[in-house]
Amino acid sequence: MFAMRPVTATTKGDRQMVRGTRIGLAAALAVLVGSLALTGCSSQDEATTVTVTHGAVPTPTLVDNGIPGNSVGDTRLFSFDATDEEGEVVRTDWVMTTTALDVAPDGFESRVTTGVFAFGDVSNQLILEGAAFYPAEGATLEPSASTIRSIIGGSGTYAGATGWVESTRLADDTWTHVFHIQ
Q: Are 111 and 171 contained in the same domain?
């Protein structure tokens, strides 16, 4: 910042001028600090989007925890390649754990998912996490369904990333993941 040095005022008019100058500087400083604070705030319009697409999801590895068959604690593991907007390979790794059975709509399960998307060098990652409802007999969302999850972090190019991602399973069994990075 800056320091104000003492000003010696010899007359009443000089003292009023110095006081007015100090009040004016304080007001200007308050406006500057306020505008800098607002500039640092992000809005939906300032989000950067990154889109990743891939084909049908391969059959996951299923770790059948707890009671045999569909049960809380069952974990599905996926790992496969996708592509970004420029056609570059994006490595995706997924861990999906069943947390509740028979949730509405009937025949669906609640699953918590963590997905790691590595762009080129594995040090450039976006990480998503969230819960969604899945058909009990299916490994993924139903066709033409989507879900929104949080971006919980990133590394490299995406260090400090926050925001949200919408994952959509299209009718033709392909997928899009649109990251809205703040």
A: yes
Residues 2 and 54 in one domain: no
111 and 33 share one domain = no
Report the number of distinct structural domains present in the chain: 2
Tens of pLDDT, residue by residue over 106-117, are: 889 999 999 999
Same domain membership, residue 81 and residue 20: no
Q: What are phi and psi of 54, to 5 degrees?
A: -160, 165
Answer yes or no: is pLDDT of 90 > 90.
Answer: yes
30 and 53 housed in the same domain: no
Question: In whole angstroms, what is the distance from residue 144 CA to residue 171 CA?
Answer: 5
Burial 48-85 (b: 16+ CB within 10 A, else e): eebebbbeebeebeeeeeeeeeeeeebbbebeeebebe
Predicted TM-score (pTM) of this structure: 0.74
User: Residue 72 — very low, low, confident or very high, per pLDDT cuts 50/70/90?
Assistant: very high
| Cα–Cα distance for residue pair 170/63, rounded to 1 Å | 27
CA 173 to chain centre: 24
Residue 137: give its domain's CATH number.
2.40.480.10
Residue (of 176, 98, 160) closest to 134 by Cα position: 98
Tell me the average pLDDT across 137-149.
94
Q: CB 167: neighbour CB atoms within 10 A?
A: 22
